[in-house]
Write a structure and sequence with these properties.
The complex is a heterotrimer of chains A (498), B (314) and C (322). Chain A has 498 residues and is α/β, with parallel strands linked by helices. Chain A has 17 helices and 20 strands. About 2% of the residues of chain A have low confidence. In chain B, the strands form two sheets. A six-stranded parallel beta sheet of chain B has the order 2-1-3-4-5-11. In chain B, strands 7-6-8-9-10-12 form a six-stranded mixed beta sheet. In chain B, helix 3 packs parallel to helix 4 and helix 5 packs parallel to helix 6. Classes of the chains: A alpha/beta (498), B alpha/beta (314), C mainly alpha (322). Chains in contact: A-C, B-C.
Chain lengths: 498, 314, 322
Amino acid sequence: MEADAVAFQQIDKSFGAVTALKDVTFAVMPHECHAIVGENGAGKSTLLNILAGSLRPDRGQLALGGVPVALTSPRDALSRGIGLVHQEMLAFPNLTVAANIFAGREIRNRFGMLREADMHARSRALLERMRLPISPDAYVETLRPAHRQLLQVARALAFDCRLLALDEPTTSLTGAETDHLFDILEDLRRNGVTILYVSHRLPEVFRLCHRITVLRDGRFVDTFERESVSRDDIVRAMVGRSIPPRPPGQRPIAGEEPRLRVSNLSRRDSIEDVSLSVARGEVVGVFGLVGSGRTELLETIAGIQQPDRGTIAVDGLPVRARSPRAAARAGVVLVPEDRQREGLCFNLSLRHNLVLPAAATRGTFLIRGSELEESDALVRTWRIAAPSTAITPDRLSGGNQQKIVVAKWLALSPRVLLLDEPTKGVDVAAKYEIHGIVLELAARGTSVLLVSSDLPEVLTLSDRVLVMREGRIRGELAAGADEEQVMRLATTAPGEAA
Amino acid sequence: MKRIGIVLVLTAIIGCGKSPEPAGRSQRLRFAVMPKALDIPVFNYAKIGAEREAAARGNIDIIWRAPETADQLRQKEILESFITQKVDGIAISCLNGDFLTDTINRAIDAGIPVTTWDADAPKSKRLAFYGVDDLAAGRILAEQAVTLLGGKGKVAIITSVGATNLQRRLEGVKEVLAQHKEMQVVEVYDIKEDPVHCAEIIAAGTNRYPDLAAWISVGGWPVFTRNALAAVPANTKVISFDTIPPAPELLKAGKVQVLLGQKYFGWGGESVRLLADIKAGKMPANPIIDSGVDIVTSANVDQYVTSWNALVKP
Amino acid sequence: MKAIWRFRELSTLAILAFEIAFFTWYLWPGEGRPHPFLNAANALLVLKYSSIYGIAAVGAAIVIICGGIDLAPGAIIALSGVVAGGLFVGGHWSLASSAAAGLLAATACGLLSAALIVVAGLPPFIATLGVMGIARGVAFIITEGRYFDVSSALPPGWRVAGIPLDWTSPILMIGLAIVFQVLMTRFQWGRAIFAIGGNAVAARFSGVSVGLVRASVYLVSAALAGVSGIALTVVQGQGKADLAMGYELDIIASAVVGGASLSGGRGSVIGAVLGTLIFGVLRNALPQVPGATFYDRLIVGLVVIAIVVMDQLLQRRKGANA
């Protein structure tokens, strides 16, 4: 019996207070195609990064071919035959295909000069083997996204690769291109390479892989044989928890004109024909996996992006917001996903951050003398833990920073509140406080459109759940839906039966 | 804490080691000698001349001061600061005489004698000007060219627009050349007081006018460096102002045919002498003192170099 | 946060005060001589020449706080002076209308910068570099290498509204500094500028009209350079195209020494003016230090580095104490 290609033994990994992996133990057999599935945040990417040598586990070990190893760097992993195809495009658009393939690991002669002809020849051979119709001299910026993704695979294969790990490789591929990739992978497998395939697209997983490992909340759940398991079984394993029942009859669903109505909203390469409505006091959750277009949808409604087609109406009046300012004046505000980059100005005090949107959207000239009281009032109302409002945001915890971002918009008493991952990177206590804020707002009549990857959160807060996939709304589930239903909708390709 | 740091830093920087009290006897005179800018090499000889004269007299301190590069505002600023510092005398080569006229007058009204050298401020109340008669010098340049070329040929002129003295020299050149119908000025190049530019200009000019008979330069830029004249073909003559090294070498090597020398050391020395005399009550008989020019050709270059070297050594 | 800003301006003031004290001590004269540095005429001299930079440094600080940079002030100083001088001397316009025209020319340059940066999306360094060339070029074309003799067209001893000529620039500098300090701290416009400089994306998401505000700061910077140029022309008496060459770097350095961070979001208008005075005092006092003739540039460079390093250390200490 051959030794396992790779075995993970009791791997632990944490980032500060966040536990990404806990006691993960499983093995991958040689020459098989092994899938790793799980929700967003289950720990799949972290595990792959440990395998590829870019992260070191806090506890536990890796064993390659039965031999325990401690990988020190990506270069070390590479030299042991481990290749990783990343989820993000790690390509250099200004360099050629050949240069990209060998980037960081160029072939040099003994004087240190680059051996261009060698690299060119090896690239050409590799591209032929993969049946990729691109030239080694083409500049990557001219390539289609699909080819760029396959180029990542080529890069991993450029060296003697015994174990190839792919992280969500098909996000930008069409059906035909996916087929092509699978052919290549099957080819490789027959030639002795072991494949680790990380994805949340179950149909693909079932097509390609022999065994499927499920991770959930950073822990190992089980490894299944493809032949003996159904898609539902996998979904249940991915989701696997029970949610506390929602208190019944808490939110009034008004029968009047919806506060927010979006019709046929489309934007090239992000959302397609999205229609939804949110009533007064209603919380509508939008769930979807990475790449489903949720953030783009919110940004389009909030005036940050402009739609190509479609309409938005607030309280019956059409709104064409060309900027966040215009949207805010129409009563639509957005709490963005990335508070560091999009939510806070770290050179300004909390006070200045809190009063900025109100002042900017109302167009006041003079700074109001009351801004001290106003900001203090906001801090009190929303229970933000800060020693004073004169400090800068970097001195607050993530949860409190997020509350500042929410509070500053609430100062405008918006009609529609859009939330994009409001509790991402937030500690548990702050998370529940933010949930409380959302429910309180809804009770007061604000319409809330909530995007989140945290399925329990979505289900707890929402009156209805819309599921998005690849830029479209795949389906709508009423209150009381269970997680598996949602997950199923989120993971099936359009046109496929759920 | 940081204040102590600043004290240390600044004190270390200006740790010239000089005592805070300048040599205190009140009969020492402080003369400010100001060239147009610190980066014009020809004026270094004025500094040597001034310091020699001061050392010979024994009771004079020379403050040699100017903007780092030709900037009229800065020169005016420095001049004004000498007024507020109440120096005993100022000798200045003006970047723009008219611009400095008011300030010079203010200095004189404040009791500080002012003389000019090399570049004058004729409308001001300055007590004396020591330098070449620019118009006459320009004429001489052109006459030398005429003689060399036998009265006919194409000529290109190099000048720097803006300085009054250079303007006058240019007028002198043009005046003489206009009298010879067969001499034609094809172009007047503006070097913008940047000698590094010179090689470029000469290369461009030689390219554009391959049959150019001579270059006339009203300033010494072509001969300030060894390679500015590299692009000049063998049968094109060069007649230039200024004889400071490496100009004589270039003349001996045949790259230049005629050089017009000013009294470089005299700029400094004579100015100091004039100021000292004025302070002692002796006014110059004639405010305009023509220093004259030295015409240097292959015939007398060796002798010129010998007497030059004698003056350079302290 | 207000306290931090005031703290930084105070430290700039402290450096200036120390500098003055130092030179007063170092240049103490022998018996019988008046102090060459510490006298009223010299102080006026420093103010007069510093304000050429100082008025424009107010605008430079605002642009830098907004996260941008402006390389055009030197050229605009020349252009506005040339336009005003030319119309006054050559066109026989009244002084007021000539000045207005000069200001208009400066603002046109600012409009060009704003359009290139906000509409065309060019990096501010490149855009203002281009405008610098255009402004300087137009100035040369107008003057054809000569100059406009403004002082001859003004009666001798002429005063601006009763103020002696030499005092006009310093008064303008101090007045404009106060006005813009108020605008930056008590008005929403100033707040938006700090926000954009700190995080332009977040500012936009927060409803700030980033494009409009950015355009306005370049207009302000150019207009202030225009004021400086017109004042220069009237006070010094000449409208020339080659004045203020290279001054933009000194102007930016003054703003940085006064507390502006080139990465945006930090800075002060008052600090920029104090920074200008720090350099002005150095420029005035160093010539009087015997033997320091060729050390000017070196000393100025060392002072800039020393101040900026101190600033960085202060920032880091503030962050560590958080």
